Amino acid sequence: MTIELVLLCIVSFFAGFIDSIVGGGGLLQTPAMLIILPQYPVATLFGTTKIPSIAGTSFAAFSYSRHVKIKVKLLLFIILAAFTGSILGAWCISIINSTYIKPFILILLTATGIYTYSKKNFGLHQEKNHTGLRQILLGLTFGFIIGFYDGLIGPGTGTFLILAFISFLGFDFLHSSASAKYVNVATNLAAIIYFAGTGHILYQYAIPMAIFNLSGSFLGTRLALLKGNRFIKIFFLVVVFGTILRFGWDVFRPYF
Questions:
Q1: What is the mean pLDDT of residues 184-201?
Q2: Which of 113, 162, 185, 230 is deepest in the core (most CB within 10 A)?
């Protein structure tokens, strides 16, 4: 076992832990892949990270399903939209420069962090007076957009999904995190189908990383179910802050 694989497996464990609670595991995995395996094309590294991501996220989704009630019909529509968006995003990665998207993401994340911290009831259940059709239309919209982002860039997808479920549908943090896992499984699967079909997955790294990601997901899911909304909200803020630093570095690094 090479030192590169050991390092990637360690990172994948912590990525699975973070991802199972509030998403954002890609903030660890993606930069680690780019730094540790710089000799490979970016698309290949992105494709490889999807295997461990789907392993941990699938386990988290299964674990949440045993304890948290899910709105299955609504979720199916969102999953379909996210799956479609992710395939399109994976295709667009070769023709769109993600550098132009990152400043917008940085602004959005900063606003999210401030809003979440200042609103003490954010992430508690809030009844939204939406009709069933309106819920579906909102879900289709944010599902497609976030799915497209996941296929195109990836890091922070789970965090954005949780934010969308809370803001648009009134879910609490626990139900948002659980629902986000199912959608994230769909976006990862869509990206895997595309990247595998174009030969952009390094299975010798992806499979061991998947085992460690799943292990981290097991620990993270147990903690989230045990501690509940308050714990998830605090963890959410920590991950959002880390995401802001990450994208801030990407945006402003060329000026230094």
A1: 88
A2: 162
